[in-house]
Amino acid sequence: MVDLGILDVLQIFGRAGRPQFDKSGHGTIITSHEKLAHYLSLLTNQYPIESSFINHLADNLNAEGLS
Fold first, then answer.
1. For the segment 13-49, what is each residue's pLDDT rounded down to a tens digit?
2. CA-CA distances (angstroms) from residue 66 to 57, 59, 63?
3. What is the pTM of this model?
4. Do the beta carbons of residue 29 and residue 16 sit within 8 Å?
5. Could you give the CA distance from residue 53 to residue 37 in angstroms, rounded to a whole number?
6. Which residues of 29-46 are buried (b: 16+ CB within 10 A; e: fewer)?
7. How many Å apart are CA 50 and CA 46, to the nearest integer?
8. 22: burial class by Cβ within 10 Å (0-12, 13-18, 19+)?
9. How confident is the model at residue 65, as a pLDDT?
10. Among 21, 23, 17, 41, which residue's Cα sits nearest to residue 31?
11. Distance from C-alpha of 26 to C-alpha of 3, rounded to nearest angstrom
12. What is the pLDDT of residue 38?
């Protein structure tokens, strides 16, 4: 068994429910009591999104093959 990262947990929970058919969705984490606080903090804490896009803007534009 391995611990899931926050991105995996959010991906799984994000797929719970079908927006066109369901009003809500449910996700369940089955873990040991020792890991419970870890997963709760992952789901309730918000972390800032850090982008490095602007640092590589020229490379990204060149990759698009714009004339």
1. 877 777 778 888 888 888 889 988 888 887 787 767 7
2. 13, 12, 8
3. 0.48
4. no
5. 33
6. eeeeeeeeeeeeebeeee
7. 12
8. exposed
9. 65
10. 41
11. 20
12. 84
